[in-house]
Amino acid sequence: MDSKYPPGPYTGSTVHEYYATRIGYEHPTRSGAPHTNTVMFIGELGDCVTSVTYLKPLADALDKSGWGVFEPHFFSSATSWGIGSQNFNDIEEAVKYLTTKLEADGLPNKQKIVLLGHGEGCLDIMHYLTRGKRLANVNGAILQAQVSFTGNMSFYIDKIHRRGFELYNSTDKLENGSTYTNPAGVSQFHALPGPRIDDDFLELEFCDSFLEEWFDNLDVPLLFLMSEEGGFLEDRDEKQEILNRYESFVNGGYWSKLSAVVEGNSRNDTKKAINNLVKKMAGFIKGI
Fold first, then answer.
1. 20, exposed or middle or buried, with CB in 10 Å at 0-12, 13-18, 19+?
2. What integer best gives the mean pLDDT of the chain?
3. How many CB atoms lie within 10 A of CB 248?
4. From the DSSP assignment, how many helices (H) and strands (E) are in the chain?
């Protein structure tokens, strides 16, 4: 499917220093007037500003409704595994800057913030909203192309194991880059693939009571978009069952009925699903 939102250059963006040496890119407005509200993107490990294809189309679709898109650069941005644990602090500082400190730079503060997670960024958002000491106000959350580190790591280990048998007595080598290739801090490497880690709510083996601990604390509208393609699960029906299971734990009417398994969407290549993805996200955001 060809997208009706063709890619284009990043022109007219505003660069913000939201905390210490951290910067973020705010997408431009066609009118030139600042957006009243913003969507703050939190990417997966290895992501950096402009690396995810659907963000500019999303910004274009939201522009006339008073919503913009803000891409912060975090301590762990573009570092794959990450070597620190500052993402939650960076989220907090970015939200506080956008909602309370823009006026100091001569711009109006944002009235509403929606957090948009991609891949491992979904784990950061859920931890921030339900487990962290959240101080800044957030009005909604989107979890897109979610991933479980435990399931994902098992998928890669099985893949490498099978490939090793195929190459037995061969002069070929295992492919580099089968998984994250950047340095990992010891605590990160130990925690991320391990069972029942603090910020992994997507492991399939978790019992109902564990998931209830996560979702019972959720107090903002939630849009949950699973990818039809890619990830460590291949069966669409199984993904829909997971979606239904999570919905049953979200109380207070916070679960968005726009939540779905997105047709044609994969975690790292969303080109053929951009129209579907943008339509669902924009519909949810405009209703906040």
1. exposed
2. 75
3. 12
4. 8, 8
199-227: average pLDDT: 78
CA 280 from centroid of its chain's CA atoms? 15
Nearest residue to 96 via CA among 19, 9, 197: 19
> Which H helix or E strand runs over 34?
none
Mean pLDDT for 172-183 is: 47
Phi–psi pair at 204, nearest 5 degrees: -65, -25
- Asked if residue 188 lies in contact with residue 79, where contact means CB atoms within 8 angstroms, the answer is no
**Contact 78/46 with Cβ under 8 angstroms?**
yes
- Sole residue written with tokens 């990043």: 10
Query: 118-142 in b/e burial notation, b at 16+ Cβ within 10 A?
Result: bbbbbbbbbbbbbeeebebebbbbb
Token couple for 246: 């999570």
Span 1-51, pLDDT tens digits = 344 544 554 457 888 999 888 889 999 988 878 899 999 999 866 566 667
Q: Determine the straight-line distance between the first and last CA of the chain, rounded to whole angstroms.
A: 29
- The partner residues of 38 in beta bridges, in order of sequence, read 68, 113
Dist. CA 256–CA 246, nearest whole Å: 12
Q: How buried is 195 (Cβ within 10 angstroms: 0-12 exposed, 13-18 middle, 19+ buried)?
A: exposed
Q: Which two tokens stand for residue 201?
A: 């709510």
Number of neighbours of residue 64 by Cβ within 10 angstroms: 10
Pick the range with the lowest mean pLDDT from 78-92, 145-159, 245-259, 268-282: 145-159
Query: Which domains are present in the chain?
Result: 14-173+180-286 (3.40.50.1820)
CB-based burial of residue 201 (10 Å sphere; 0-12 exposed, 13-18 middle, 19+ buried)? Answer: buried
- Amino acid making up residue 186: V
